[in-house]
């Protein structure tokens, strides 16, 4: 499905006021309609796959971003001092959460973690507000396969003296990522599993 900009009517602005249960269902439909594809693909991990999830089709969608911000904010522990993620996939996610947090009067800054340190200026890996040492930072991801991408963010954040104990992903492909995080002592949670998406995708096609 191709997204087309249009003037919304009140019933279309579901991400603004829907309850969290409805919000989750609507977001699941967006993933099925815009992000999920079946075919022959090679993932960033190098693994072949019979399907692909282009999360940015949803995270950069106006209602998708708002729904993601609201849902993820509801999942953050009370002591969360910032959200962070590895560029590029996590950039719109951490931004959405931070913006929604300000609207909800629970301001939480966003951090973007580079894959490589920039070659000029401060040569930093991490972009965003400077936090105090030991600040609790939660890592966000769009799609988790093996868990290695978000782990790069965890490592850079810990090297900057931040405390990172949890990863939340929008989608878990259930290909070892959860087990990997458990093995390194990280709590892991996903909004959707690939089973959720594939089941709903088939329902929508029937």
From TrEMBL:
The keyword 4Fe-4S does not apply. Transmembrane segments: none annotated. One of its GO terms (biological process) is 'de novo' UMP biosynthetic process. GO terms for molecular function: magnesium ion binding; orotate phosphoribosyltransferase activity. The keyword Transferase applies. 5-phospho-alpha-D-ribose 1-diphosphate binds at residues 114-115, 118, 120, 141-149. It catalyses: orotidine 5'-phosphate + diphosphate = orotate + 5-phospho-alpha-D-ribose 1-diphosphate. Orotate binds at residues 145, 173. Pathway: Pyrimidine metabolism; UMP biosynthesis via de novo pathway; UMP from orotate: step 1/2. Keywords: Glycosyltransferase, Magnesium, Pyrimidine biosynthesis, Transferase. Its cofactor is Mg(2+). Its EC number is 2.4.2.10. Homodimer. Belongs to the purine/pyrimidine phosphoribosyltransferase family. PyrE subfamily. NCBIfam families: pyrE (TIGR00336). Catalyzes the transfer of a ribosyl phosphate group from 5-phosphoribose 1-diphosphate to orotate, leading to the formation of orotidine monophosphate (OMP). This is Orotate phosphoribosyltransferase. It comes from Fischerella muscicola CCMEE 5323. The gene is pyrE.
């Amino acid at each position: 499905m191709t997204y087309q900009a249009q003037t919304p009517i009140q019933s279309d602005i579901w991400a603004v006021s829907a309850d969290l249960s409805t919000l989750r269902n609507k977001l699941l439909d967006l993933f099925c309609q815009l992000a999920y594809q079946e075919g022959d693909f090679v993932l960033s991990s190098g693994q072949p796959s019979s399907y692909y999830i282009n999360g940015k089709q949803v995270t950069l969608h106006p209602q998708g971003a708002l729904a993601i911000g609201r849902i993820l904010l509801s999942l953050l522990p009370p002591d969360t001092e910032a959200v962070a993620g590895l560029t590029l996939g996590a950039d719109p996610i951490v931004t959405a959460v931070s913006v929604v947090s300000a609207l909800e009067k629970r301001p939480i800054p966003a951090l973007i973690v580079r894959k490589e340190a920039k070659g000029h200026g401060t040569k930093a890996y991490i972009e965003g507000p400077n936090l105090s040492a030991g600040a609790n930072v939660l890592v966000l991801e769009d799609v988790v396969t093996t868990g290695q991408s978000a782990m790069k963010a965890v490592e850079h954040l810990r090297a900057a003296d931040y405390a990172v104990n949890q990863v939340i992903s929008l989608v878990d492909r259930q290909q070892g990522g959860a087990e990997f995080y458990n093995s390194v002592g990280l709590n892991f949670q996903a909004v959707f599993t690939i089973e959720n998406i594939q089941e709903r995708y088939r329902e929508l096609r029937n």
